[in-house]
Here is the input.
Amino acid sequence: MSEIVVTGLGIVSAVGYNVAENRTALSQGKTGVSHLSLFDTRYAGLRPCGEIKTDNDDLRTKLNVGEKGVTRTSLLALHAFEEAVNDAELTAAELRESGTALVGASTVGGMCLTDELYHDANRDAIGSDYLAEYDCASSSIYLQKRYGIGGWVNTINTACSSSANAIMFGARLLKQGRCRRVIAGGVDSLAKFTINGFNALHILSPEPCRPFDRDRSGLNLGEGAAFLVMERAADVKNRKMYARLTGYGNSNDAFHPSSLSDDGAGPQLAMRQALQEAGLEAGAIDFVNAHGTATENNDWVESQAMLQVFGTPPAFASTKANTGHTLGAAGAVGAVYSILSLYYGELYPAIHFAHPIETTRLVPVLQYTPRSIEHVMANSFGFGGNCSSLVFSAR
Amino acid sequence: MYIHKINCISPQQTFGDPDLEALLPAVEGKMFAREPAYEGVPPGMLRRMGRAVRMGVGCALPLLKDLKPDAIIVGTANGGMEDCIRFLNQIMDYEEGMLTPGNFVQSTPNATAAQLGLMTGNRNYNITHVHRGLAFENALLDALMLLKDKPTLNVLLEGLDEISAYNYNIDFLAGWYKKEPVDNRRLYDTATPGTLAGEGAAAFIVNSSSQNARAKVLGVHTLHTDDRAEAAEFLQAFVQECLPAGANVDILISGENGDLRHHHFYESAYAAFPNCEVARYKHMFGEFGTTMALALWLACLQQPYPSHMIRQSAVHKGKYILLYNLYQNRQHSAILVERL
Here is the structure.
């Protein structure tokens, strides 16, 4: 069995429009979480978010999108997808081959268009330009159509672990010879739907979020997209290989629709399965890119689960304070950051952290740290108890 | 991959003991599912569930009575759209005021798989595929890959979708439903765009053991195209690859839905397999993103299909069954089943 390697990366988030900008921002401990200026909601001054500060018209121009009915979610997906396939040097002809698969993920899909959806769903107008664009699959279908992608195309929604599962599904397609290359990742844009949903659950923070801090006060929403190009090592030949995807695990916490169990049974299982798949002992993991949303529940449970799985957890940090929680994109965003840590041999500082949770005493990485790394674990946990972990290893 | 237990909730009598002879009608262009009395679901829990989750949970639970599957794999195009838009309407009507989060939590498309995990204390692999008209096909592929990788597993595989007032409105505005009233008995005689809206759920226990199995899934494949020649080629190549040497397709279960724009794709399929029985089902279930789950359920039945399903009859042993579907003029899929 040939190894699965990552040959291309693409990302757009509140801290940068490409991989290089994201890496610089993380290295410098910058945040893209701020007051909303483009997105219209009554929570604009009240709930800081990781907003990408380019409006849809400018995104359309930048991406050369002339047709009507393309949502912000699809535009962000296109932005990251283009970078990833260019990075992997995939040609237009290769994208059209039946061996090229696309696995996307989204939780919001086209529901970022709250007003249009409201009128269309209640049928009080003649129909907007977006009638085919509201569902979670719309961005994958847009990319398929734009590039004529010829192989398997899928979209996954397991809430906040969606794109980790997309990467896992993509790797399995490769392993079983269902494709020769796969572009896998996820996207979500800010939406009244999610801002109001998380706010109604009282887990949106009124201040910049503080993952793993004793005094954390909830999450900040973010938006973004990230894609990986993955191939079998034997097929890659002379092109760049960032990392190997060596492990993955998926488990359900089976505890509550919108919170995790105290002992983190699901997160523990996901992490252990990923280690097992990678053939690694827990001690081999050098760094954990934690889910770390900064909600009371997640960070406590993830800490407990890491203590159970690792005994003494390795270096860890969450980047949610940099980008906000990008929901369906979060797994892929975490994967890209994990791969950058491996490839460049560096750990990025957790920001806004002051005091450890008293009972766990766990402290994330606080300084930019150059360090040679062999294995990184990336965690994503979602509503419905859907927990997934990925392990990336150095080339 | 072998199919063992099956269950189906649909606009017809399919739950428990199926009776497909008596064709139940569409109401105002919609084929609503006949929901059974959901046994084994606490009433309080049932009340909080939207229709999609209720059907999904209610269809799968009877298969899990004495089995804890190693994976729960669900395909759904929309999930709980009714809850989703209810929450959206709250946002708009109360101008983002104080909202209750219940509809928000219920509206996520992964709610059915999540509820099944929660209710049965199942912490194993759990995933929801949402690729519109190919959501179930991707779930099926997921199950196939899992079993190829780990042959000892048992997998719960399910496809489900609901008609909500909202997805009906959106797809109506987009032209996917007929504007004129249609009798579902005459669905295939129409010469207009659009079809009937439908809903339902079908659940399967699948594993790698042929013992006492109902059917074997020989393969699944999908294609995105609006090109007729490409679609025809795809179907031929798929059958050539998956059908055992010397065997013929005995039954073609066709996703024909009375939409004028889809018709020539199905005509190509009929022409490619001229000697088999052709059975249709969308007059029974209506159209939705995961009808192939219900078509697969039909393929697993042992009894002959009622005459209202038969487009073309043939003398056959009913062993190899090809399922072909086209969703919204672009998403093609094919599944090949060997009935055991």
